[in-house]
Amino acid sequence: MKEEIKKAKELIEKSEKIVILTGAGVSAESGIPTFRGSQGLWNNFNVEELATLRGFLKNPKLVWQWYNERRKNILNSKPNLAHLKLAQLEKIKPNTWIITQNVDGLHYKAGSKNVIEFHGNIFSEKCLTCDYSRKQEVYYEDSDLPLLCPRCGNLLRPDVVWFEEPIAPENIEKSFELVKECDLFMFIGTSAVVYPAAYLIELALKQEKQIIEINLEPTYYTGLFEITLLGKASHLLDEII
């Protein structure tokens, strides 16, 4: 591990354009549950009920209650050392970009500016009917749910990407462009099984980019490139940045 940490540090130092894909494992140390694994968020719920449009239309209050509890958890959380080290890296290397699968906004709170929120932001809301949208970092009273659009009166929904929904085209385009142009690609705290985010790893491999993986456990891609660091993201990022 010491040799790999040394190599990772040297690779970061000599790279100018760095792209970092982050997943739920990065926010786990802030007390936010991951989606998979033994303590995963999805383990106790039916995904069909809580993270699809048809589930929302069937029971909008239930879906809003679940997202509202997640909001409460996030509002009571702070960026951890992993978030802070990535923000520090951007200050050292201004062409560093984060593409995050997380919807908690903690990369921004840590000070990162070059962030693509691939799956949206849990504090953003949009109307099902008109083009009204807003962002409010608040926790709602149960009596306020489900939320209604102040413009047309129809339902507001969380502006996150649910299952069976496409990623915003501008986020896809920008992310693929960044990976193609980067010197170094890193993926941290992600199971690497959710598409299209996992395509970014495959693109980096196809483009023969330098790649660093940081995860608690091996993934499907472990061993396909030189540097894999297994352990907590905060500890390992503190070692290499």
Give structural notes.
With about 240 residues, this protein is an alpha/beta fold. The chain contains 10 helices and 9 strands. The strands form 2 sheets. The chain has a 6-stranded parallel beta sheet with strand order 3-2-1-7-8-9, with helices on both faces. The two termini are about 15 Å apart.
The beta-strand count equals 9
Specify the CATH architecture of the largest domain: 3-Layer(aba) Sandwich
Widest beta sheet: strand line-up: 3-2-1-7-8-9
> How many structural units, i.e. domains?
2
Oligomer state equals single chain
The rounded distance between the terminal residues' Cα atoms is 16 Å
Provide the succession of SSEs.
HEHHHHHEHEEEEHEHEEH
Instruction: Evaluate the radius of gyration.
Output: 18 Å
Which percent range describes the beta-strand content? 15-25%
What's the total helix number? 10
Characterize the main sheet: 6 strands, parallel
pLDDT below 50 for ≥5 consecutive residues: which ranges? 36-40
Shape: elongated
Q: Pairing-aware structural class of the strands and helices? A: alpha/beta
Helical content class = 25-40%
